[in-house]
UniProtKB/TrEMBL annotation:
It comes from Virgibacillus byunsanensis. InterPro entries: ATPase_dyneun-rel_AAA, CbbQ/NirQ/NorQ/GpvN, P-loop_NTPase. Residues 55-192 form the ATPase dynein-related AAA domain. It comes from the Bacteria. This is AAA family ATPase. Gene3D superfamilies: P-loop containing nucleotide triphosphate hydrolases.
């Protein structure tokens, strides 16, 4: 395998199938507070793609850990990461940067302030594009050249041709089917290797709660793992929206449970975020049964 990076030894061992067991690396990631993949293959495949200079698209439900996954990949590659948060208001300035007036030696001059795309390219670091399908379809084609083999772009504000330095890579994340999202066009989707990121469950979720929240009571932790399983099942059955099963929200509830009763923690961290009364009552009933 050809790599452009000095990968940490534990990751290199996994890629080359040598010294360490997969479980050892998972434990190391957990201790570091990194993303814990439901299957080690997700991590291997993402690292393999990035080490070859390919773009990675993380696809999955909200709160499944896509941003944490991207941050973990950035840390494993020892790469800083510039971020773009997509919305309908995303424009060229949000991606590339903008011009502003500055003063030097008492003289007024026009200065260009680089945006996340130009910064990541010029510094040879990672670029993270969150909720990429929230952007207007006419905005993202601006960076098509950044996402293919050319790794170049003409800055529309300075007319400078920018070629990414070695080490530049793109990770994007997508939540499908949400209000305000649009399907990715084929030209854009074909520029990515797609990694499907499912919810964390079972023992891995338990370990995540133990290492990333204040909650220490094992009985309560087990109950939260059961709650998450029930919420995820309800999402798959169409009874709840994906927001209800967000792992991020569950971890918030676990943190709060260190200070307030678990049922009230679930109310604040999960229930009160839901819009439909039917969904709110469903989650409240689950919490009442468990806690």
């Amino acid at each position: 395998m050809h790599t452009n990076y000095n990968l940490p030894e534990n990751i290199t061992d996994i890629l080359y199938n040598t010294k360490r067991k997969d479980d050892d690396t998972l434990q190391e990631l957990i201790k570091q507070g990194g993303y814990v993949p439901p299957q080690i293959d997700l991590l291997i495949d993402a690292i393999s793609a990035l080490s070859m200079g390919k773009n990675v698209l993380l696809k999955g439900p909200t709160g499944a850990g896509k941003t944490k996954f991207a941050e973990t990949l950035s840390n494993l590659f020892h790469q800083p990461m510039f971020s773009v948060n997509c919305s309908v208001d995303l424009d060229a300035e949000s991606l590339m940067g903008f011009k502003t007036l500055s003063y030097e030696d008492g003289k007024q001059q026009i200065e260009f302030v680089p945006g996340p795309v130009t910064s990541a390219m010029n510094n040879g670091t990672f670029l993270y594009i969150d909720e990429v399908n929230m952007a207007k379809p006419e905005t993202l084609p601006l960076i098509n050249g950044v996402l293919d083999y050319r790794r170049t772009i003409t800055n529309p504000f300075t007319n400078e041709i920018i070629t990414a330095k070695e080490g530049f890579n793109v990770i994007a994340a997508i939540n499908e089917g949400y209000v305000g999202t649009v399907p990715l066009n084929e030209a854009l989707k074909n520029r990515f290797i797609v990694i499907d990121v499912p919810y964390l469950e079972g023992e891995q979720l338990k370990e995540l709660i133990q290492t990333n929240t204040r909650l220490t009571d094992q009985t309560t932790i087990d109950l939260f793992v059961t709650l998450s399983t029930d919420l995820i099942r309800a999402v798959y059955q169409g009874k709840l929206s994906e927001d209800a099963a967000s792992i991020r929200a569950l971890l918030d509830a676990c943190d709060l449970s260190d200070m307030i009763p678990p049922k009230r923690a679930v109310l604040r961290a999960i229930v009160d975020k839901l819009d439909e009364e039917r969904e709110r009552e469903f989650v409240i009933n689950l919490a009442d049964t468990l806690f």
